Amino acid sequence: MNVYEEAERALRSAPAPGLLDAIRGVLTRHYRAGAVDLLMADYSLTVLLSVSAPGPATEHLSIDNSPQGRVFGAQEPAHERHGADTVVHLPVTVRGDRLGILSVTLPTDACSPAVRTELLDIAEMLAHALTVAERDTDLYLRARRKDRLTLAAEMQWQLLPGHACRRDEYAIGAQLEPAYAVHGDNFDWSATADRLTLTVTNGMGEGIDAALLSNLTINALRNARRAGIPLADQAALADQAVYARHRGDAYLSVLLLDFELATGRVQVIDAGSPRLLLLREGTVSAIDFEAQLPLGMFEETDYTAQEFPVRPGDRLVFVSDGVHAVASPAGEAYGDRALARAISATRLLPPAEMPRAVLRELAGHRGRPTPDDDALIVCLDWYGRPTAPNGPPTDHTERTHAHPSPLRAAPHAPR
Q: What CA–CA distance (Å, rounded) separates 119 from 122?
C-alpha cells in the first residue's frame, strides 16, 4: 500500500476528532516524521492555533509574522532547517478555502522534493476530511477561536459557506468584522455546473435579533434557490418570509447575483445598501443598479432582475455600509473613493487575501481596531470559462442595463 492509499484509508476510518492522530501515524511510518501539528486559522484570519490544545488560552502564531502564516498567505509550502531536522509547512486548503497549516518535522535526509510534494497532496486530503469531520465534532471549530464568540457571531459563522472558494471560472474571498461579535451582515454562495449564485447581505439591527433576521433571510433564499426558482422569485419569496415574520418592523438589504459561467452574463437584484465596485483594466468604477426595496419592508414586493456582463480579468468587490459609511475620528466618511484607492492598491492580492488587507486599511481610517458596525467585504475575480476546442468564442459584449457610474452613496436600511 502506497502512502496515498494509506493516508486516505486512515482519514476515512478515523473518528472525527482523531484526524490529526491518524495522519501523524501515516507520516511516522512512511517518512520517520517527528512532530506533526495541525494549525487552524481563526475567524479573524489573523492567527493560527493548534488543534492539539484548542481553546482561547491556546498559544497562537501570527499569520502576518510567522513562517506558518506566510505559507498560509502565499498558499505555497515552505520548509525550515533545524540542525538534523527539517520542518515542512503545508497549506491545508479545500477548493480555495484556506483552513490552516500542517507542520511536519522530518529528518533532513528524508525531506526530498518528492517527499514534500507527497506531503502537500496529503495535506489536501486532510483538508477534505476536515470539512466532513466538522459535522460530528466541535474540536476544529474550537481550534479556530482565539476569543469567545458572541452568540450572534456563532450563529452567523455557522451560516456562512466559508472564507473563500475557487474553481476554473472564478475565485471568491470574503471576510466579516468584528469577527467575534458580528451581528447581521452575511454572505453566501452556491454553484452548479453552469451557474454561480452570490448573496451579499447587510443586516438590520444588532445582536441576536440581527442574526435571527439574517438566518431567516438566507435560509429563505436558499430554500427558493434549491427549488430551482428564478432569481426574481427567490427575492420575492424571501421578502414574503421576512414580512410574514416581522410585518415590516424589520427588513434586510441584499445584493443578489446569478452568474452564467459559460458567458459571464450576470443577473442582479439590488435590494438595499450593499455596494458593488468593479476593477476592470486598472480602473475602479461603482456599478449602478436600479435600487429596489429591502426584503421584508412591504408585503408582496415584486423584484426585477437586471443584467450586466463580466469579462475575464474583472475583479468585483462587494461591501456593506459598515465599510463605505464608516467615519474617521474627524467625522470623514470612508466612502467609495477611498475604497476605490484601496481596491487599486490590493489588485495584486488574491481574492482570499484582499478583504483582510482592505479591512486593515479601514481600521486605520476609523482610528481604532474594533468597528461600531459590521464590516463585510467580498472579492470575486472572474476568469471566465475557456472556449471549447473549435467552439465559438465566449461573448462578453452583451448589452447591459447596469453601467459603471460616478461613485455615489447607495440607499441603505437603517440600523
A: 5
